[in-house]
Amino acid sequence: MGMDHMLLLFTGDSKLFVWQPTTGFKSHFLRKNNGLLFTRTHRNLLLIGGTRFSGLYIARELALSGHQVVLFNRGSVPIGDISLKIRGETEKDFQTRMSNTHLIKGDRTHPQDILRVVQSEKWDAIFDNNGRELSDSKPWIDGLGHSIQHYMYMSSAGVYKESGLLPHREEDAVDHNSRHKGKLETEQYLKQSGIPFTCIRPTYIYGPRNYNPVEEWFFKRIDQNRPIPIPGHGLHITGLGHVEDLAKAMVLALGNQQAVSQTYNIQGRYSVTFDGFAKLCAIAAGKDPNKLELIHYDPKKVPKDKKSFPFRPQHFFCSCAKAERELQWKERWDLVSGLKDSYENDFIEKKKRNAISFDFSLDDQILESLKEAKSMLV
Asked: NAD-dependent epimerase/dehydratase domain location, by residue (predicted)?
């Protein structure tokens, strides 16, 4: 592979950086305003994943920044497959990006695959986008040792301890028993490893290609003119961020010396109530938000083994002041435009090919229980 390209290996947009080869095959990351960030040699960047949702957007962001992208994944989606094309890409741009994208097949759950990749090249930076448990990332961290110049880790704002003092900031207390404790343990291991790292903590991620039922959960009910059952009073406030803005933040952190050994929250500038989010989804779908039937219920009366709502029934949102200040990150997508993007460029397309399940059986159970409770009070 030629020395005039930087290789990126991704687990798991934008011309934010320009890569320039210099004498002796050294390179610099430059901002658009030519402000120098790093003067280190960066040739090989490793991305784990890169074919689904946030990983796909990060891969595109890096490619648009002029990097040759190397993906490490199982290879279930071949390079050039139409599913890797993202909204807004022309056929020419897509083909150009694919010609500069390479694949190393492997499974991150197989230690021998990781060892093979770690020993095959001197990887300068890695994007670990889909590690949920410490055991997912520890082999990479240990294998790369002190040869890595930057370990980019996708953590989660879910590591914060629930608090009445909001928004969450990076220095806030964390919950070692949260469902994201594996990510927290990985953050702590990175700190102990001595490897230069950056951790990104997004809140809820949304946007086209989202495989988690966040905005789609609302779109389905709005599309079918269904009541929307919301746990609690509907006034819990939550934070969301568009997947493309998240990808931009991660690429901005790459090669930024100020970002080394730092953690950053990422979400949209504005947070929103559950009821407010439902209404914004209606606007994105071209429906009258005032005609929505919002039904509030006690979440404790729903079977615990079934997820009836995409958000945790609590206030959950973060400050991104640190990312804005140190990474010069700014969101592109506000909630209205971002939800329209998701509705028009994902939900509609999936509906046309019958790729959406309109199963409202749990909704019906909730609504029926509310009717029974009401009849008992009469």
From this structure: 148-266
In a domain, 15, yes or no: yes
Domain membership of residue 226 (yes or no) is no
Q: How many CA atoms lie within 13 A of 241 on its CB side?
A: 27
- The beta strand positions in 6-108, using DSSP E, are 7-11, 18-21, 27-30, 36-38, 45-48, 68-73, 101-105
pTM comes to 0.88
Count CB atoms within 10 A of the CB of residue 358: 11
- Say whether 28 sits in a helix, a strand or coil: strand
Could you count the other beta carbons within 10 Å of the beta carbon of residue 48?
A: 27
Q: How confident is the model at residue 165 (pLDDT cuts 50, 70, 90)?
A: very high
Q: In 167-326, which ranges are E strands?
A: 197-202, 204-206, 228-231, 237-238, 240-242, 262-266, 272-273, 294-297
Residue 152's domain spans which residues?
7-207+240-266
The reply to whether 40 falls in a domain is yes
Give the contacts of 178 (CB within 8 A, at least 6 positions apart): 158, 159, 160, 161, 184
**Residue pLDDT, tens place only, 231-270:** 999 999 999 999 999 999 999 999 899 999 999 999 999 9
CATH number, domain at 148? 3.40.50.720
pLDDT in tens, 347-368: 999 999 999 999 999 999 999 9
